[in-house]
Amino acid sequence: MSFLRLLAIWAILILGLQPALADRIADADLAPRVAALGSGGFDAAEQAIADLAGTGDDRVPTILDRLGEGELMVRKTDGAVFFAEKAGKDFRLTDPVTGADAGLAPKATLEKVKVNNRIRRAIASAVGALTLMSSDPVVRRSAAEAVMKSADAAAIPALDKAIAAETVADVRAAMMAARATALLASDAPEADKVASIAAIADFGSRDALGFLSGYTTADGAVGEAARKAAAAIESRLMLWDIGQNLWYGLSLGSVLLLAAIGLAITFGVMGVINMAHGEMVMLGAYATFTVQEAIRTFWPDLFDYSLLIALPAAFLTAALAGILIERSIIRWLYGRPLETLLATWGVSLILQQAVRSLYGANNREVGNPSWMSGSFALGDIQVTWTRLWIILFALAVFLTLIAVLKRTRLGLEMRAVTQNRQMAAAVGIRTPLVDALTFGLGSGIAGLAGVALSQIDNVSPNLGRGYIIDSFMVVVFGGVGNLWGTLVGALTLGVANKLLEPYAGAVLGKIILLVAIILFIQKRPRGLFALKGRAVEA
Amino acid sequence: MTDKAEGSLLYLDDVSVSFDGFRAINRLSLVLEPGEMRAIIGPNGAGKTTMMDIITGKTRPDTGDVLFDGSVDLTRLDEAAIANLGIGRKFQKPTVFESHSVEDNIALALKSRRGAFAALFHRRSAAEQERIDGLLSTIRLADKRHLLAARLSHGQKQWLEIGMLLAQEPRLLLVDEPAAGMTDAETAETAILLKEIAKTQSVVVVEHDMTFVRALGVKVTVLHEGSVLAEGSLDAVSANPRVIEVYLGR
Amino acid sequence: MITSFLINSLDRRGRFVVGLLVLLALLVPAGNLLVPEANAFHVSTYQLTLCGKYLTYALLALSVDLVWGYCGILSLGHGAFFALGGYAMGMYLMRQIGARGVYADPVLPDFMVFLNWKELPWFWHGFDMAWYAFLMVMLVPGVLAFLFGWLSFRSRVTGVYLSIITQALTYALLLAFFRNDMGFGGNNGLTDFKDILGFPIQAPGTRAALFAASALMLALGFVVASAVVRSKLGKVLVAIRDAESRTRFIGYRVEHYKLFVWTLSAVMAGIAGALYVPQVGIINPSEFDPAASIEAVIWVAVGGRGTLIGPLIGAVAVNFGKTWFTGVLPEVWLYALGALFVVVTLFLPRGLVGLWDRAVTGRAKPVKDVDGSERQAGEAA
Fold first, then answer.
1. What residues form DSSP beta bridges with B12?
2. Is B175 on the interface with C (CB under 8 A)?
3. Can you tell me the ipTM of this complex?
4. What is the CATH number of domain A240-537?
5. B132-144 pLDDT, tens digit each
6. Which chains touch A (3 or more CB pairs under 8 A)?
7. Which of A58, A70, A207, B56 has its Cα between 20 and 30 A from that of B188?
């Protein structure tokens, strides 16, 4: 596909999608200028093209594109210009200005608007001007990147003009790179080409690398410069890749943190091994789904707030379920961790099946509120809003929990009970109540995790299963009974996982990590930040 | 290896260990002669149990030498190896194998090859049976030999544990608060039993009960904050002003 | 000497179990092959295969009980050893297909041809020979268990920590076996077997023989387990279960004992898996699912851990329930299974055998925590 075609299509897309960015002039003003295309010889056409480009109208790129493709025809009877599409023996005519159907016309009554190389250049420069000179820097940058992909020497004059006028530094760099790629593809002298490679290297995008790879095998100065430049770009891109993977890792780490943090309370602080922890997360996700369905049905205006409304609902659902489990089952099994493990596994089966009976076995769709959808770029790193919010949410939950444990009466009693149950009871703390509330807190936090996970994972009865082993790994790796250890553990495992992925693949990376943790636990059975000493061993 | 360790059974020199910044044992030195019986006293947290943990390989010291028999470095061995060297330990809280019978408890402790395959194909010999019977009558549990250990009283469990200790035929016995939770009569009997044992083996007794220590009538070491505060006969250390200060407070 | 050692190890109940299993190995195949279909004593091939499957599950349960009931090691990953034994058998059966596969490649199994592989991966060599495959059935789970146990027990990973890393182990294997490039058929596993030791695998005679083999292997496993737990080594195991550090202090190297029983148990689980695969006709990664391993634990708990007969009863009873429920009320099964976990741990710590003992003797043996509970997770807080 030629540069022209590409640029035009691209311009149509951008300008068409973003009408606010483009100006439109009145149909009555545009129509005569279009008609002028077919009015005379090449000189007149060239003049008309420049004239059209001058309007800055968003319909112009389409018209010029069709002209370049030879799809513009003049009706012999009145000299009017139309888009013509072959329809059987005849042509279907469309008004280029209004887009109105102008009926069928036999071939004999029409004449093609003639195009030669001079006209093509004129079209290129006009379209280039329209896009490269757009008032929106994003449009200009994308235009430059489009040129870069096509590497068409015809674009050089338009680029030169745009570069001269450009004020935004990185857009200018993109244009320079585009110009350099175009120059490299042309028959310019070697010295110019070497210089242009330097410009491309400065820009250093993935496209630039792809383009340069065509020259790395070339002989002489150009080849050498290209190889050097390619290497430079590669190392730069590698850094960005690492940055991107770090971001993914943080994102995964925050998900692990959310899933594990409740477990850090129930397992780490209370010593209760709750295999139904994943199901608490799952209940939170279904609570979110239910709240959102209600909002969709009754108060559609509140949809953007549905997740915020779901937070307390999810917390309470999971917390109540947790308290119920603690009071009915777990409290009979304190001090018998292996039996607790089995009993709570049974609970997890029951909860899964209950949700399956209520909501069906299929995945449920939880929508993204508008403020959580979309993404933005940070250099070469793509950042989705969902992930960013989840990271912030995880940290907020973590810090809140620390505050609850350190600053509140409940936190104080909780720590008292876990450190010395008899003494706590002796000073008047109602230990059964504290047990129930602690377990409820841990479960409730799992419910909160469910709200976040509903945004990025399938909401299905099996949702929790996928997180239980990872959560335990995080808590054990970080050091049982140490919340900061859980934070470090979650982020370390998340980042390690994502940094391994490009080399080992997703599944193998996970396996490597699991094996690494298994080996780590052998080495330090009590985790990264374990407490030492007799108190632990007793 | 220092020459000072020569001829001693147990030799601790400049041993320190700390947990999370807390120094449980602080430059502790202690020498035990072969055949000696020693009582260790000291307030709570003085490091008595930690000292036993270090000798038996449960805890590794941060610094210092721990030598057995004048030359064997105990800090490099694990619990099982140390036990097989001939160091037996009785815990503060009696721990016996509750789902085994009294007789099986003794049989398990009986000196023998400890390897897994040796155990798999082990057949109890007549000599072993004789030894078990002897021990059971020593600890006065012969009539309860088929009872599960879980069904014994607290005092009986203490005795069973001492019986297990004897079955190991150790050269050194570490006994942690043997009289805890016993009646006065049982305490007196325990003291007699220990003195009997001390005729053939070396014994270290950790005890709070002063009457009991007095009944033993042996050299006493007073521990305080992880190091030795005083050493000598019970009367001598009782008169020591620093010991009085530690025990009675200012 | 070994034989007398094994036979003497059985108590009355043990001799009854072994006798019953040998009888089953004779009667059930006879009921299938010799008794005419119209007769009330006829055993259909479906029933025969189903019962054979239960027997392999019983062997798996026995292996779990050996480590959990007697040594306090709660393995949540025994399914991995079962599956590895199954895969070793599956590889043998795949190689027996030969050129009869869909792609008719004389050497490569169908899935390898499908993946465009040109030659057999190194670890598939030798599996065309039955003796080699049967050796691997024991060796692969055994060696894995030995390495895993050597690392874990030496570093004194115990209690729930050990349980969780056994679960992580089987989970890691689950993920690994799902991958096509591992060379084990990925998602679909190994299936479409044609014959075993030269006999067509679907033939009633072969099925009857497989049933008999399962019953006899279970009987052998029972005798071996019984010999182990009644030896002095077995007493040391129980001592470790009840008071691990005490056992160290009287001079037993606990990690060696654990390693022995752990490896033995893994080999038993591997054999169970190897007998399972030809009877169900497929082995796929789902056998590595942590849920499957935990299910095996509940069979043991239901029957009665720390007894040898309990796991057999539990495995057959729970799986019979599963077959019945999934046939009649499929959606109720998970509720029932979940409730089973809860009820057994809360109310039946000694399982059905404990219930029977109580009914017979009027009093139960004292219950001791299986894990010995010398320490509790999270006490560090």
1. B30, B66
2. no
3. 0.88
4. 1.10.3470
5. 999 998 888 888 8
6. B, C
7. B56
